Sequence to fold (283 residues):
Amino acid sequence: MKNKLLKVIASLLVISTVLSVTAFAQEGGYDGAQPENTAVSTKNEGMTDTELPADPDNPDTPNNPDTPDDPDTPDNPDNPDNPDNPDNPDIPEEKPTFDDLPGDYVVGRMYICTQIVALGHSWIYIESTFDGEMTVGCYQVKPYGSVSIGAFLMSRSDGGGVYYNVERYCANEYGLRSQHWLGMDITKDQLIRVSSEIRNWNYWGLYLNCTFFASKIWNSVSDEFIMPMVFPVFIKLQTMTKGGNSDVVMQDVEREDCYKQRKSGDRAYLEVVKDGTLDSRLT
Fold:
């Protein structure tokens, strides 16, 4: 009887042990297979830790080739906020100054001009083709602006010397007669030379008159040599033989923008002319 009882107890212990092991395996214990990993892995073969595999159902995934580029990137030429887009008119381009230009850059046209009324008059006219300011003698020419420079004596109230824009004003106010001019392109380096010649001239004489002044300025940079002679009619004859014409047109100018050059060289400066200087035609 006692032996049978022991066998029954042993059998119950075996059954209890088997049931305990089975329950443990079902609750997450080892069952001979790879355990299921419930955590999301962010690392795949051939990818960095921060990359996720492309998801075709999600256009926002980083590696989806169908995802459109960011419209704010500089590579988008249609983006108005892109400073690298040269076609964007809202962003001004930086313009070069006169000092930034190479020496052989053409900055305008220079003309030697004459009008034959009475004794006549000769002068220089420079018109800018440069989108920036530049200096001619003592005068600051605005972008695409112009200036006339000539020597006068008794015909102007401010006395003998070099004047700026008197010819421009009188031509537009009173007109020109029997006029003629000859033109040439002028480069940055040539304009600097011309400006120096103008600043160094501050006189008028019987021979060193308007004709000599205009010829000297012209000849300082031009290959078309003009022989300086006392009377402007001789300048006109020379410009006619060198291909000039009578289509003399100068930009208009206000009275307040007409000047007399005082002193010369580095000390030269401009002074607005008196009213009487502009009250007569060019002669």
